[in-house]
C-alpha cells in the first residue's frame, strides 16, 4: 500500500521496456482507466491504471 493514497497500489515489473508499451496499447484498446502513456519515472518506464475496486496498478520496467 502506498502511503498517502486511499487505494491499494500493486505493481508488475516487466522484463523489457517494450513489454510495458505493448501492455499499455492493449489496455488502451480495451478502454481501461489509464493515467496516461508510459513515461520515464523514478528510474524506470511505467504507467498506472485503475482496476475495478479502485485499485491502483503500476506496470513498469526498470533497467538493471
State the main characteristics.
64 residues; alpha+beta; 2,3-Dihydroxybiphenyl 1,2-Dioxygenase, domain 1; five-stranded mixed sheet; 1 helix; 20% helix; 39% strand
Task: Please summarize what this structure is.
This protein has 64 residues and is of the alpha+beta class.
List the helices and strands and how they pair.
Layout: E1 9-13, H1 17-29, E2 33-34, E3 39-41, E4 44-51, E5 55-61
Parallel strand pairs: 1-5
Antiparallel strand pairs: 2-4, 3-4, 4-5
Radius of gyration: 12 Å
Q: In percent terms, what proportion of residues is strand? A: 35-45%
Number of helices: 1
Could you give the distance between the termini? Answer: 24 Å
Low-confidence stretches: none
CATH-defined fold name:
2,3-Dihydroxybiphenyl 1,2-Dioxygenase, domain 1
Give me the CATH superfamily.
Answer: 2,3-Dihydroxybiphenyl 1,2-Dioxygenase, domain 1
**Tell me about the biggest sheet?**
5 strands, mixed
- Main CATH class: Alpha Beta
**In the CATH classification, which architecture applies?**
Roll
Amino acid at each position: 500500500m502506498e502511503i498517502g493514497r486511499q487505494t491499494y497500489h500493486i505493481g508488475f515489473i516487466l522484463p523489457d521496456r517494450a513489454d510495458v508499451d505493448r501492455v499499455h496499447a492493449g489496455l488502451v484498446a480495451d478502454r481501461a482507466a489509464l493515467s496516461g502513456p508510459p513515461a520515464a519515472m523514478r528510474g524506470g518506464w511505467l504507467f498506472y491504471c485503475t482496476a475495478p475496486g479502485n485499485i491502483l496498478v503500476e506496470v513498469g520496467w526498470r533497467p538493471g
